[in-house]
Design goal:
By secondary structure, the protein is mainly alpha-helical. The chain contains two helices and no strands. It is rod-shaped, with a radius of gyration of 39 Å.
Length: about 120
């Protein structure tokens, strides 16, 4: 049965049962609370990640500074060793230095082995 020559029939516009509407509203409220809890957990996790990233960045910068200082110290030491090797009596001193370094490494190895 058509009214006003429209090609479709309108849906029944009966009001929804109050209990069905209340149930949907309660379900929406519960879902909104769950979503709010999840958002709070994600926010807390994001803050913790940010704090950890800042801490790790600080550590890495400190390590980078230490490596720069060590590199400079090692460069100066190598310059002195090369200068010592170029001097006339340097070969004898280089031999002593090599034996000292070898002794230290053997001593460390023995200490760590029998610890």
């Amino acid at each position: 049965m058509r009214r006003n020559n429209y090609p479709y029939q309108p849906l029944n516009q009966q009001p929804a049962a109050p209990s069905g509407h209340d149930a949907l509203e309660a379900e929406n409220e519960r879902a909104a609370e769950e979503l709010q809890q999840k958002i709070g957990a994600l926010k807390s996790l994001t803050i913790d990640i940010g704090n950890e990233v800042r801490y790790q960045d600080k550590l890495l910068r400190g390590i980078d500074d230490d490596m720069d200082r060590t590199s400079g110290f090692l460069g100066n030491t190598m310059t002195r060793v090369v200068r010592l090797a170029k001097q006339g009596g340097g070969s004898k001193q280089m031999c002593y230095m090599f034996l000292f370094v070898l002794f230290v490494f053997v001593l460390l190895w023995l200490t760590l082995k029998f610890k």
